[in-house]
């Protein structure tokens, strides 16, 4: 499931939130249920299968949240480092100009000493560590030549701009340090959550894993049934739209021609999106079988939002890195109107995303231990679906 979580983002919610799904393909054999909800408590200190299952699911969800924070911190750190480098370069250039302005003042003072054209106060002013302070005290500006005044003005301008850029660079360096600390913290959290989950899974018996594999299979069958149901609903809606369009076209043929600009524009927009979506899906399908790795953006592995970002980039569309930004990078549409290429988001905190391919199915990078694959959008139940967004 992927990398992402933050405070609740804006976005239209399609359904509510539910308990996260069982742990994944390679780890799906992890989920357990040997006892009913009313089973008697264990006679020893070992947690029940239900407790282990819930704990593993919670750990994977928490790892997703930490992964999203990691992705966000990494993205912020990269941008901040570029800003710091740019500012430092600017400070260096401005410092050089400041030195040149200072040297010009010195040349003016030296020339006046040689010619005897300057009063002692004027030379002192030109060579002072802070000419502005001296000027404020003695009001000597009216005793300078035009060139001298220009040199002083240039010096003051360069000095002010350089000091401001130095302050900006210092602040950016502080921000960069904070971002790097956030990055380290998020990375440590992800690693700890995944380690805890693996430890719990390692304690399951072969029988428990077999039971959970059977439960996971039943869940997949139910998800496939729901996907087929959505496919039938969408097919029926499409049939009705085509009939309505045909009826409207027939009616128009018996009436005087009308302005069809709006219709043509809409048709062109739909065609453009379909073309981009086709490229997006072609890329996504070519990644099937590659492993989920938290924080990965390809080309050998992906987390969920890394895959969706890379897929849409292949179609020439740039979308943000993380899910809670991606959910706002387009137009929200009803689930019943989902088209191939749309992004399907999951959970109330928007911590997972997949690419809709039609017929209730999607391509996504599920979670640690799993691989990019096609799967029903109901893989974790209908209530896990947050929203559907059309990026372009």
Describe this structure in words.
The structure is a single chain. The chain is of the alpha+beta class. It is 59% helix and 7% strand. It has nine helices and six strands, in the order αααααααααββββββ. It has a six-stranded antiparallel sheet with strand order 1-6-2-3-4-5. Helix 2 packs antiparallel against helix 3. The chain is flat. It starts with 24 loop residues before the first helix and ends with a strand.
Which descriptors apply to this entry?
single chain, 392 residues, alpha+beta, 6-stranded antiparallel β-sheet, 9 helices, 7% strand
General shape: flat
- Supply Rg: 32 Å
Strand content: 5-15%
Order of helices and strands: HHHHHHHHHEEEEEE
Q: What strand line-up does the widest sheet have?
A: 1-6-2-3-4-5
Structural class: alpha+beta
- What is the overall pLDDT average? 76
Q: How many DSSP helices?
A: 9
Assign a percent range to the helix content: 55-70%
The number of strands is: 6
Poorly predicted segments: 1-12, 14-43, 137-141
Largest sheet: 6 strands, antiparallel
From the N-terminal CA to the C-terminal CA, the straight-line distance is 24 Å
Short description:
The protein is of the alpha+beta class and 392 residues long.
Question: Topology, please?
Answer:
Layout: H1 25-28, H2 49-115, H3 120-127, H4 131-138, H5 146-202, H6 206-253, H7 261-286, H8 304-313, H9 323-326, E1 331-333, E2 343-346, E3 352-358, E4 361-364, E5 373-376, E6 385-390
Antiparallel strand pairs: 1-6, 2-3, 2-6, 3-4, 4-5
Helix pairs in contact: 2-3, 2-5, 3-4, 7-8
